[in-house]
Amino acid sequence: MTGAKRGLDRPRRAASYDVEVDREVWSSFTHDPRDSRYAPIRASDHDRIVVQQVLDEAYADGRLDRDEYEQRSEQALGVRVLGELNPLLGDLVVRQPSTGTSLAHATRSDLEAMAERHWRTKRREASFSFLGASLVTTAIWFATSWRHGGFDPYFFWPAFVIAFSLLNLVRTAMSRTEIVDHEIRRLERQRDKQQRPPGWLPW
Q1: Which pLDDT band, with edges at 50, 70 and 90, does 200 fall under?
Q2: Rounded to the nearest 10 degrees, what angle do helices 2-28 and 108-144 cross at?
Q3: Could you tell me the pTM of the whole model?
Q4: Does residue 115 share a domain with residue 57?
Q5: Closest CA to 117 of 125, 79, 191
Q6: Taking each helix axis from N to C terminus, what angle separates 45-61 and 2-28, rounded to the nearest 10 degrees?
Q7: Are residues 86 and 117 in the same domain?
Q8: Three-state secondary-structure class, residue 150
Q9: What is the number of domains present in the chain?
Q10: Is 154 left (phi over 0), alpha (psi -120 to 50) or beta?
Q11: Claim to verify: residue 68 and residue 109 sit in the same structural domain
């Protein structure tokens, strides 16, 4: 009986966790891909990075096998419009239909929490960019240093790429207040727009 109760408890905890994670995922896109109005809008590099992060986490959690992960990662790179993102995430995050008033009743604390998650996403992207650029360029340099029958290192040019990506990471990490405040203002404008009655005109 005790084991059965434990088994029943796990889905409830996971569901609670997923709700918070899903909110962060959907709010990270430039526009909500679930909204039919934005389906034909061109996807940005930022949108593709968000999808790749979800795939990375799903693969690390064992929810995707290697073949599925590689296939979806390749598809994510080729995404053209926001509507094409939904099939890649459909069985990984809850695709609760988005409504046009998703921010209409949001409080100041709600907007601050969303802005904070936005900054954490940007910081995570900068971290991945730094690690990826460092590893890839260093690997290329190392591979091309094998010359004349042995290891013959030359000028370590990846240092420029590493320094640039590190600068971006540090700048993002140190600009928390600026990024959060800017995102709050953006969300407030979006909320104000959603609160307007149908047919509202500024004159």
Answers
A1: low
A2: 80
A3: 0.48
A4: no
A5: 125
A6: 170
A7: no
A8: strand
A9: 2
A10: beta
A11: no
